[in-house]
Design goal:
Elements lengths: L1 H23 L4 H5 L15 H19 L10 H8 L3 E3 L4 H8 L7 H27 L6 H20 L8 E3 L2 E3 L6 H15 L8 H21 L4 H8 L7 E4 L9 H8 L3 E3 L20 E3 L3 H5 L15 E3 L9 E5 H14 L3 H12 L14 H15 L6 H10 L49
Antiparallel strand pairs: 1-5, 2-3, 4-8, 6-7
Helix pairs in contact: 3-6, 3-7, 4-5, 6-7, 7-8, 7-9, 7-16, 8-9, 9-10, 9-13, 10-13, 13-14, 13-15
Length: 461
């Protein structure tokens, strides 16, 4: 259905273009064929201080769409799709490409993932361009401005490496022309992201609120990347986040008139996603845990009706659906980096250093910031403590792009069998879950001459 509507939109657009050309009656054939790519900004248009600032703001807007913002097309980003591949969300509509993600049988031609890939790379490339323009045309700009662009670039690279198979590609735009990248491993992408974080941090020299916001975001992102690089970097990860207040939040802002909250849109409003509970045997009980970090209601009940959700079932098969209330409106902001994440990084490093008491204290200090959360007790064994930590991460970071990377780390770094981590067994709409552990590089990347027909090097965690 999505593919058909996409084709229809493209046909309408093509028809409109043809009509416009015929109406002018004076365009030569070579001009008809030389259509400008709207995603590539003409360098001449931004060669000024004002142009550099416009590209900087545009990069932040594109990061919004690539993470928690609803694009004009209505397609979701990696926050939602990664959460559906794991155990955060279950599918609530009849779109085949969404169902494939939920069932863990994703094909490179999946149209939703193609759009998500474009959005994340648009943000990355805009930030890359903004950094260059700020250096050239606004050399006296406060250091946090180019530093934030390094943050956007590193954040998108890290998120892509957490979600995609080995073989992801980062191309560039130099002087308005594309330079094709080559497939790389996820570990190489994490190293690239780390280099960009380390380029941004020294630029933040101010102590004002805005400077500290960017500094803390870079610090936490650095810790997250180091966790992805493996246990040998855990102690360094904890050092990186030291001093970040637990109350810190780096948020994506949303509104009713511009970029709305995609999580609210796809769950609360359109019923295409439903909060999961115990999905595929291994899934956590997100919707039934009664955890104040993830308030929910059942579609059509009194609480949901008070929040504007009157429908009692999902769009397909008449099944009931669970609605998240963490973001209760289209204008709700979404925190993508936080001080709580700094505490989770420290706790993981403490467990790795054989300090379970310190880790438990760190976890409980974070929990103390939420009314209604009771203190945890020692889980009793190394494996159970890891389970406890990752459960805490799951509820703190629900649907903010962390869960798929966490499941992959449980397989890759903690040697958990994939069938003990991912949803398995019979799938709710027929058949069984597949074996996908990550997202393939989209088929559209095969336009890149450096990418082989098999877009992934491998699909390992």
């Amino acid at each position: 259905m999505h593919l058909h509507s996409l084709i229809s939109r493209r046909r309408l657009a093509a028809a409109a273009l043809t009509t416009a050309v015929l109406a002018t009656g004076c365009l030569s054939s070579d001009r008809i064929l030389s259509v400008e790519d709207p995603d590539i900004i003409n360098p001449a248009d931004v060669q000024s201080a004002a142009g550099a600032n416009a590209v900087r703001i545009g990069a932040l807007a594109r990061l919004n769409v690539a993470t928690s913002g609803a694009a004009s097309t209505g397609d979701e980003g990696l926050f939602m799709l990664g959460g559906m591949l794991t155990d955060e969300w279950i599918n609530g509509d009849s779109f085949i490409d969404r169902q494939a993600v939920d069932q863990r049988v994703i094909q490179p031609a999946n149209s939703f993932l193609t759009e998500a890939d474009r959005n994340i790379n648009r943000a990355r490339l805009s930030a890359q361009q903004a950094t260059q323009l700020l250096k050239q045309y606004v050399p006296t700009a406060p250091g946090w401005q180019p530093a934030e662009m390094y943050f956007v670039e590193a954040y998108t690279e890290n998120l892509a490496a957490e979600d995609y198979c080995n073989g992801l590609v980062f191309s560039k735009v130099v002087d308005g022309r594309p330079e094709y990248g080559s497939p790389m491993t996820d570990q190489a992408a994490f190293q690239l992201a780390l280099a960009h974080v380390d380029s941004g941090l020294p630029l933040v020299t101010g102590t004002d609120t805005t400077s500290l916001r960017v500094k803390y975001a870079l610090q936490v992102l650095r810790g997250r990347i180091l966790l992805n690089l493996g246990p040998s970097r855990y102690a360094e990860a904890a050092t990186s986040v030291a001093g970040v207040p637990t109350s810190f939040k780096y948020q994506m802002q949303h509104s009713l008139t511009t970029t709305s909250n995609a999580i609210w849109s796809l769950n609360n409003n359109n019923r295409r996603y439903s909060v999961a509970s115990g999905e595929g045997t291994n899934g956590l009980n997100f919707s039934t845990a009664n955890d104040p970090r993830l308030p929910v209601c059942q579609g059509g009940d009194a609480t949901c009706k008070l929040n504007g959700v009157t429908q009692a079932s999902r769009d397909d098969l008449g099944k009931p659906f669970t609605v998240q209330l963490l973001w209760p409106s289209a204008a709700s902001p979404v925190t993508i980096v936080s001080g709580v994440e700094a505490r989770m990084i420290e706790a993981e490093a403490q467990l790795a250093a054989n300090d379970p008491g310190g880790a438990l204290t760190t976890l409980n200090a974070a929990r103390a910031t939420v009314p209604g959360l009771t203190p945890l007790t020692d889980a009793g064994s190394p494996a159970a403590r890891i389970d406890q930590l990752f459960r805490e991460r799951a509820f703190w970071f629900f649907s903010t792009g962390h869960r798929l990377g966490d499941l992959r780390r449980l397989v890759r770094q903690y040697t958990r069998p994939a069938d003990a981590v991912y949803p398995i067994g019979p799938w709710a709409k027929g058949g069984n879950y597949g074996g996908d552990l990550n997202i393939p590089v989209p088929q559209a990347e095969q336009n890149n001459p450096n990418v082989p027909a098999n877009t992934c090097i491998d699909r390992n965690a």
